[in-house]
Write a structure and sequence with these properties.
44% of the residues lie in helices and 14% in strands. It has 273 residues and is of the alpha/beta class. The protein folds into 2 domains: 2-200 and 239-261, Rossmann fold; 204-235, no CATH class.
């Protein structure tokens, strides 16, 4: 019974931001349990190590270069996916990120952040989630079944210093996730579920400059502060998100929609004392 509920073999899952550390790990891990994975990436292709794992899994896969903020690009990718796989079962929105010029620092106060920088981060995180939900969610509405997982952030739950654009746009994803979960269930089918995961602190390409000193390789003061406020006393690794993703995609969570699940080493629970 349990094996059947967790069985995701041949499920067709689209992963945006597949060239990132989180998107890449999720893509490879789902392929390894038998999912047919579709990797959407923008400029950089998924890591070689990710592709090696996917190929070794012998699961079906496809890759498309796609700007998640482009309606035309998303629709073109969707049409190609439907043509190749005939249907889509799930969407995981991993695309997102921050920009140094939308980050406050002694050299760049909040009052000096340009409109372009703030909008760039907001467009990538918020619209880069909304537009894929529109494009692929329309397929789910036609089929009366589907599963969407949005990747939020701990910054959306507890607004953090230095990253106003990132925190604001990720908080908007939380609100959008809850709204969309109700809309899809009440307007189309209660077999369409929409949830979000809020990762804690994972060191990646886009936040490394905030957490690791580029000259010494040691934690910055911000990095040290995060560790001190994480009860488990460490940064997370992308693979630690996978079990939650599998649960949300599986039938074992078929009464779960509209929720935000922290995977954060206890950061959100810790009051500091």
């Amino acid at each position: 019974m349990i094996d059947k509920l967790f069985n995701l073999k041949k499920k067709v899952v689209v992963i945006t931001g597949a060239s990132g550390s989180i998107g890449g790990e999720i893509s490879a891990s789902l392929a390894e349990i038998g999912c047919s994975v579709v990797l959407l990436y923008n400029k950089n292709q998924p890591e070689e190590s990710v592709m090696k794992r996917i190929k070794a899994s012998q699961s079906d896969y496809a890759m498309y270069m796609c700007d998640v903020t482009s309606e035309e690009g998303l629709k073109s990718s969707k049409d190609s996916i439907i043509k190749e796989f005939s249907h889509i079962d799930g969407l995981i929105n991993c695309a997102g990120g921050n920009h140094p010029r939308a980050t406050t620092s002694p050299e760049n106060s909040f009052f000096e952040i340009s409109n372009d920088s703030f909008e760039w981060v907001t467009k990538l995180n918020l619209m880069g989630t909304v537009l894929p939900c529109q494009t692929f969610g329309e397929e789910f509405s036609k089929n009366k079944k589907g599963n969407i997982i949005n990747i939020s952030s701990m910054a959306a739950i507890r607004p953090l210093t230095k990253i106003p654009a990132y925190s604001s746009s990720k908080a908007a994803i939380n609100s959008f996730t809850r709204w969309l979960s109700v809309y899809m269930a009440t307007e189309y089918s209660n077999d369409i579920r929409v949830n979000a995961i809020a990762p804690g602190f994972f060191i990646g390409k886009q936040n490394r400059f905030l957490l690791i000193d580029k000259d010494t390789g040691n934690y910055t003061e911000r990095g040290k502060s995060i560790i001190e406020h994480t009860p488990m006393g460490k940064f997370g690794e992308p693979k630690q998100l996978v079990s939650t993703v599998i649960w949300l995609l599986s039938d074992y969570s078929d009464f779960v929609t509209g929720v935000l699940i922290p995977v954060d080493g206890g950061f959100d629970a810790f009051g500091g004392v």
